[in-house]
């Protein structure tokens, strides 16, 4: 009886365990920053994309970093999306933002309709609603770093309004590969099933 219950439980939870993916993003920024956020969309191809964000640090300076990891667990149904990092330089006068590799940064002014001054204020006051609206605006989505399952994409990080490249961003979403923690949890369940069957004297 116990083995049947455990089998039924595994049948229910296994699809859920295998349904998560890891959006693996790393950034390298050559200058200290502050009030940093990570924004990303999740697109399944069948429903409207959802928009999410994470606070990297707010109110405290972050030193220059190399290959700083920003892992995000996403549903296994996600196949593509856009992402970016957004923050300020230490003086609070320039926005530091991650952009797609085809967006020119060097020597260019602020490339968005929403003013840089507005974004500076939103970052300083942690106005996440306004920041999410800015990031998810269809008119600017293609300026962010795109990602898709099974590929690695890169972009650049620019400091405005002077238009200087100060870093890089790389992201990867593995295609249909369970996370190590997921496999470990599934393995524990199978081991428990084997133990119950042996204890009950039932041969496999």
Task: Please give a handful of descriptors for the protein shown.
alpha+beta, 204 residues, 9 strands, nine-stranded antiparallel beta sheet
Care to describe what's here?
The chain folds into 2 domains: 1-18 and 178-204; 21-177. It has helices spanning 2-17, 116-124, 128-136, 180-199, and strands spanning 20-29, 33-42, 50-62, 65-75, 80-89, 95-100, 145-148, 152-159, 164-172. Strand 8 (152-159) and strand 9 form a beta hairpin. Strands 1, 2, 3, 4, 5, 6, 7, 8 and 9 form a 9-stranded antiparallel beta sheet that branches. Helix 1 (2-17) packs antiparallel against helix 4 (180-199). It has 4 helices and 9 strands. It is α+β, with helices and mostly antiparallel strands and 204 residues long.
Give the helix/strand layout:
Blueprint: H1 2-17, E1 20-29, E2 33-42, E3 50-62, E4 65-75, E5 80-89, E6 95-100, H2 116-124, H3 128-136, E7 145-148, E8 152-159, E9 164-172, H4 180-199
Antiparallel strand pairs: 1-4, 1-9, 2-3, 2-5, 5-6, 5-7, 6-8, 8-9
Helix pairs in contact: 1-4
General shape: globular
Distance between the termini: 15 Å
Q: How many β-strands, per DSSP?
A: 9
- State the helicity in percent bands: 25-40%
Counting H and I runs of at least 4 residues, what is the number of helices? 4
Q: What proportion of the residues form beta strands (DSSP E)? A: 35-45%
Low-pLDDT ranges: 5-18, 177-183
Determine the structural class based on helices, strands and strand pairing: alpha+beta
Q: Can you tell me the number of structural domains?
A: 2
Overall average residue pLDDT: 83
From N to C, what is the helix and strand string?
A: HEEEEEEHHEEEH
The radius of gyration over CA amounts to 22 Å
**Main pleated-sheet profile:** 9 strands, antiparallel
